[in-house]
Amino acid sequence: MALFPLDTLAAYVAAVLLLVISPGPDNILAISRGLSQGRAAAALSASAAGLGIMLHSIAAALGLTLLIQASPAAFWAVKLVGAAYLLYLGYKALSSHGLISFRPAARQSLRSIFASGLLSTILNPKPGLFVLAFIPQFVSAERGSVTVQMLAYGAIFAVLTAAIFALMGCYAAKLSDWMAQRPRATKGLNVGAGVAFVASGISILALGNRR
What we know:
globular, 0% strand
């Protein structure tokens, strides 16, 4: 019996693609970096998001996510930190309109861009809980090591996340010159991104600790 049957793998990839292209704080962040600072910044933010997904997958495979979900105190701690960070990003975008900015002084270092992308993913408990609930549906103990399967499917999720977010950000980078000449549109995008981050933070606060 194959460890990764083609029909199961195809169904998994299709489901992941639908998830990755749906709007969320991490792909909004990659698109914003592409608009503001070009393809390299977008690719770096996307890579950070992919790494964050992989870390969530490793945590799920080792049982850490399940442990956090089972402990109300740990779950609340992770939830509050993740929500606070997303709310902070939303506040920054709404108050200073600096998430998407074409001013040289507003440019961030590549290290800061990578750190923001990574923190946005790993401090958000939703991807971890999703990995814990989603990937096991494609795993079977009859086919071999459950840990190996969890990590492999997590790696696919991470790679697809990084690749698609990078494509989104690089495409957005092509629009940067056009956007730079339209400050009102740029302000509108900052407001939209800020609202999306705030909404994501509030949705995290609304997460229930269900086993």
